[in-house]
């Protein structure tokens, strides 16, 4: 194996290596200092909890995945629409931006009780919280992608008689796709935050609820098992969008690896 | 017949902004090759915007094809210093972009795509880009990108081709190659060209008429007919006659500098 091949293999295996080493370290620390599992469970305790409760965990995880994806889907559609509006009109840009930044500064957890008053507890507030927390990056990135269109390129198209819609369809939108996909990766992880927050405050189903009820009985193994499941779901969703991104916008990275 | 006519045109950006060009009167015959030279900041680019109708004049009148210019003109070809090719399209798809936009062709684009592609390939072959049809712009050298950019400006057979310092970013040898390319394209099938440049040799080599503009606010300082016989060989740039013409133009530019 050449040096170059070894390096490539190392880069490929690096996430697994890091994960395994950190888990081992964690186990070792818990074992060495005899940390009680009701404070900070070792990976083996978490695994034991998973084996004991996995039916329940999966039920709650499915619910969380559903609310997250639903909220995320609404956020993408809405964010795309608003982002196109904001990015293609300087007037709307000026008018909407301060309002949106202000809105985004509100901690969404503070807004959950309001949603509960309006829609009751459970699925609906979780979907809405996921939506509210994750649409902002989509809007900002779409708007940035559209607003940074090169003026010369716009001149070329306008001198051909292109309408605003032509410019949007043929150039501005395809050019913004790398920005859009980057925002999806941020938004999907934020959507998990949103739905879990809502479930911890106002729900009797979902990973958030599972963790709150488990911690009230000091079952830390179960709490951490919930955390791990969310983490895994987050990574899987992220990778799905990273994959789609590579397929759709390979031209932006010219087929090379990210980083420099 | 005059294709482009400027009648005492002045232009300022904004209400109180400084004059970009002042009292410009010039005319371009059909199939004439006109070059506009001047120091940087003489409003050459403003001239381009006025002809193509991307910006209205503050005073005076601009006519294109006998009609007063009001609003963006349809079917003017433009090429700039940056090639502005779309990175997600192949070279062939890039140069066919005008066919998807210009009123005359867009309705037929889908049904006669094969025919248009044949035209595109033929044009690429004429500028020495045969074999690059399916490459992406970032796989081409700077000179090749600029060739493709000029193809894109010509594919829809525009009444007028506007070139804004298209060779400024290229090295000296590539630049001379591209002069010859533009010369050949023009000799084979004449079209009307306005070339904006700060390279006097380029202007004299390519143009029938050279206009010298003064530094801001831009005024027409001198108009010089170039009566070198056509077709011109690159060797003509080393003759005394050529040198004299360049020197005379240089003298006008020199005076502009002293005038400030």
Characterize the structure shown.
The complex is a heterodimer of chains A (260) and B (260). Helix content of chain A is 84%, strand content 0%. Chain A has helices at 3-32, 43-88, 90-105, 108-119, 123-147, 151-158, 164-201, 207-216, 220-248, 250-253. The longest helix of chain A is centred in the N-terminal third of the chain and has 46 residues, at 43-88. In chain B, helix 8 crosses helix 9. Chain B has one domain (2-259): P-loop containing nucleotide triphosphate hydrolases (Rossmann fold, 3-Layer(aba) Sandwich). Chain B has a six-stranded mixed sheet, sandwiched between helices. With 260 residues, chain B is α/β, with parallel strands linked by helices. The N and C termini of chain B lie far apart (37 Å). Chain A binds chain B through residues 150, 152-153, 155-162, 166, 170-171, 174-175, 177, 249, 251-252, 254, and chain B through 49, 52-54, 72-80, 82, 84, 86-88, 97-98, 100-103, 136, 138, 152-153, 156, 162.
Assigned CATH class of chain A: Mainly Alpha
Query: Structurally, how many domains make up the residues of chain B?
Result: 1
Principal-axis shape of chain A equals flat
Beginning-to-end CA distance, first to last residue of chain B: 37 Å
Radius of gyration of chain A: 22 Å
The helix content of chain B, as a percent range, equals 25-40%
The pLDDT mean of chain A sits at 90
| Fraction of residues in H or I helices of chain A | over 70%
Q: State mean pLDDT of chain B (0 to 100 scale).
A: 87
- Second CATH tier, the architecture of chain B: 3-Layer(aba) Sandwich
Main sheet record of chain A: none
Structural class of chain A: mainly alpha
Tell me the span between the first and last alpha carbons of chain A: 24 Å
Strand content of chain A: under 5%
Keywords:
heterodimer; A: 260 residues; mainly alpha; 10 helices; flat; B: 260 residues; alpha/beta; Rossmann fold; six-stranded mixed β-sheet; four-stranded antiparallel β-sheet
């Amino acid at each position: 194996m050449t040096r170059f091949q070894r390096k490539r293999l190392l880069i490929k295996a690096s996430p697994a290596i890091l994960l395994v080493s950190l888990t081992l370290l964690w186990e070792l620390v818990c074992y060495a200092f005899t940390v009680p599992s009701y404070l900070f469970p070792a990976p083996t305790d978490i695994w034991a909890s998973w084996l004991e409760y996995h039916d329940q965990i999966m039920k709650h995880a499915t619910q969380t995945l559903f609310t997250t994806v639903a909220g995320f889907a609404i956020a993408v559609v809405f964010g795309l629409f608003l982002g196109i509006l904001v990015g293609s009109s300087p007037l709307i840009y000026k008018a909407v931006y301060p309002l949106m930044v202000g809105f985004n500064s509100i901690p969404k957890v503070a807004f959950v009780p309001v949603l509960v008053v309006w829609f009751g507890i459970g699925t609906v507030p979780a979907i809405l919280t996921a939506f509210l927390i994750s649409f902002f990056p989509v809007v900002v990135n779409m708007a940035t992608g559209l607003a940074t269109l090169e003026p010369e390129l716009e001149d070329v198209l306008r001198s051909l008689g292109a309408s605003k819609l032509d410019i949007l369809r043929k150039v501005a939108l395809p050019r913004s796709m790398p920005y859009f996909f980057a925002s999806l990766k941020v938004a999907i992880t934020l959507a998990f935050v949103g739905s879990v927050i809502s479930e911890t405050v106002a729900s009797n189903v979902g990973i958030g609820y599972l963790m709150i009820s488990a911690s009230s009985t000091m079952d830390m193994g179960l709490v951490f098992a919930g955390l791990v499941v969310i983490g895994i779901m987050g990574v899987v969703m992220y990778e799905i969008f990273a994959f789609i991104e590579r397929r759709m916008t390979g031209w932006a990275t010219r087929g090379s690896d990210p980083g420099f | 017949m005059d294709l482009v006519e400027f009648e005492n045109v002045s232009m300022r950006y904004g209400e109180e902004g400084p004059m970009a060009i002042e009292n410009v009167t010039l005319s371009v015959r059909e199939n004439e090759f006109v070059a506009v030279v001047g120091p940087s900041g003489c409003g050459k680019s403003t001239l381009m915007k006025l002809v193509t109708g991307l910006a209205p004049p503050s005073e005076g009148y601009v006519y294109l094809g006998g009609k007063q210019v009001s609003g963006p003109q349809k079917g003017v070809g433009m090429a700039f210093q940056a090639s502005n090719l779309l990175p997600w399209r192949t070279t062939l798809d890039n140069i066919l972009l005008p066919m998807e936009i210009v009123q005359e062709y867009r309705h037929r684009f889908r049904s006669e795509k094969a025919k248009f592609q044949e035209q595109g390939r033929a044009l690429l072959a004429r500028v020495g880009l045969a074999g690059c049809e399916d490459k992406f712009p970032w796989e081409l050298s700077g000179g090749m990108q600029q060739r493709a950019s000029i193809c894109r400006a010509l594919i829809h057979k525009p009444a007028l081709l506007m070139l804004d310092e298209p060779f400024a970013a290229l090295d000296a040898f590539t630049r001379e190659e591209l002069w010859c390319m533009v010369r050949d394209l023009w000799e084979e099938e004449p079209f009307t060209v306005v070339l904006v440049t700060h390279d006097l040799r380029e202007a004299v080599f390519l143009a029938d008429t050279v206009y010298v503009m003064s530094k801001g606010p831009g005024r027409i300082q001198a108009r010089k007919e170039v009566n070198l016989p056509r077709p011109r060989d690159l060797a003509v740039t080393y003759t005394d006659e050529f040198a004299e013409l360049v020197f005379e133009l240089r003298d006008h530019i020199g005076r502009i500098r002293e005038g400030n």
